[in-house]
Amino acid sequence: MKHPVTTLDNTAAGEIDLADEVFGLEARGDLLARVVHWQLAKRRAGTHKAKTRGEVSGTSKKAFRQKGGGRARRGNLKTNIMRGGGVVHGPVPRSYAYDLPRKVRQLALKTALSAKLAEGKLVVLETAKVDSHKTKALAAKLAALGWANTLIIDGAEVEESFSRAARNIPLVDVLPQQGANVYDILRRDQLVLTKAAVEALEARLK
């Protein structure tokens, strides 16, 4: 399908053919949810830890004699029912990552790209290059284009000046095409792909 190409100066730069097998799929919320949950699970640090009765500080000596004191039978004071005691079945460090088939991940990425195109929120940019690394100049260009909440995906590498200029703009993310993922595409309102990114993604996903 044909799609217009624009520049950072908001001028037309011709058209590009978008592959139907990458940008023309039907939206599937179940597939997108599976991959987003998978991505977020991988990000979890899993560093939570609670001490068991064998790890809390304190003596293991019997608190007081078994009989004759008029009190309940008591061993040491590190049990879970005592103040400052250990935790039973508490959290331990672990990884939350799990496997997801490669075909599912690829199909979800194609679905996310197709969904943005169907919503009219996909823009193809000729090149993501600027003359200056100053944030103010790039922010003015993005504001003129109406890209307030945007993910910009470039080719194999993002130009250094563009990356530095965009680094400090709120709600604007910049990624190379290798980093294109479902979560980042969905969390931003607008998706901007350079022509190099379109070519790379089509080669990667066809």
From TrEMBL:
Entry's transmembrane regions: none
GO terms under cellular component: ribonucleoprotein complex; ribosome
The UniProt record lists the keyword RNA-binding: yes
Region feature (Disordered): 46-73
GO biological process, alphabetically ordered: translation
GO molecular function: rRNA binding; structural constituent of ribosome
Bias (Basic residues): 62-73
Key words of the record: Ribonucleoprotein, Ribosomal protein, RNA-binding, rRNA-binding
Keyword Flavoprotein found: no
Function comment: Forms part of the polypeptide exit tunnel.
Subunit organization: Part of the 50S ribosomal subunit.
Similarity comment text for this entry: Belongs to the universal ribosomal protein uL4 family.
Record-given protein name: Large ribosomal subunit protein uL4
Gene behind the chain: rplD
